Amino acid sequence: xxxxxxxxxxxxxxxxxxxxxEEAAFRCEASDKKQYHLWETGxxxxxxxxxxxxxxxxxxxxxxxxxxxxxxxxxxxxLDIFYNSHFRLAPGATNTSDIVANDAQREEDKPxxxxxxxxxxxxxxxxxxxxxVVWDMLGDPEQLRxxxxxxxxxxxxxxxxxxxxxxxxxxxxQLKQADIQQKIREFSLAPNLIKGLKQLKQAGYxxxxxSGGLEEFLQILLPDYxxxxxxxxINKMQFDDKGDIKSIVSTPFDYEKKCEGIRYLASVExxxxxxxxxxxxxxxxxxxxxxxxxxxxxxxxEVLIQELFDHVIEGDDFQAVVDLINSRLxxxxxxx
Length: 336
Description:
Radius of gyration: 21 Å
Number of strands: 11
CATH class of the largest domain: Alpha Beta
Shape: globular
Distance between the termini: 44 Å
Number of domains: 2
Low-confidence stretches: 93-106, 331-336
CATH superfamily of the largest domain: HAD superfamily/HAD-like
Largest sheet: 7 strands, mixed
CATH architecture of the largest domain: 3-Layer(aba) Sandwich
Number of helices: 14
Strand order of the largest sheet: 8-7-6-3-9-10-11
CATH topology of the largest domain: Rossmann fold
Structural class: alpha/beta
Strand content: 5-15%
Helix content: 25-40%
Order of helices and strands: EHHHHEHEEHHHHEHEHEEHEEHEH
């Protein structure tokens, strides 16, 4: 057996740098996006040394050895989850329970360590889906929008391809970044959101966003969001200097893959998925219900969420979410 390109890490590096495949191809000196895609999908398993060096330089790695997986080694379990989710592959052989902290304590008695949130209609109020907001700016060409969704759900498009297709439609209709930003300012953060996030951080929780929404909404309404959230998985539109939509970097964790986002975070944090709370409101959040340890439907959640989630908060005050979570915190329990 021979070494192979560590494709799982290559994908993780690209998405963490916020690069589209086009940008990564340019920076890594690939001949084009297609060649880079062959590396990332493992169809080119052993690139030449000068190619590996170009990739290492682009991602500022110390050595090309970081891009090589020897036959005696396995991918990092968290990167395996990340990769399989992005490409909509069946989960690998990795068992998340093998990589969480070894603790004989019963799962249900372990304290919650991490709180995950959806974005649309959860952290930001006034609309249901951020993608729908952007489509509405075009007069909502409903048949075209549904055509794209059908191609994704039927498997014609991958999730990444669907995101790129949507952005292509927006670009062809000359939708500008400034137009989107102006529309976003019509919406607002959940009442007491910043105060509540600070309280959760002070209580020792780590915070994450797992959303199929658009990062532009966060950047406008909560520009310093990175100081509150330890992890953020969301779709990131890219614009050129003229404000035209150039591309998008898609999240690996949307729709049925949201549960893989929970497993990925558990793997990285070395905790059980049952130590993670998820807060959401729309039907796409249903997929986390059997994975997260506790689920909270918030801000008039859809009927499906009310039926499936462990607890429902009808009102819009984010403080109610914080108070509910802290009510599960044992007295004198510190999570640091």
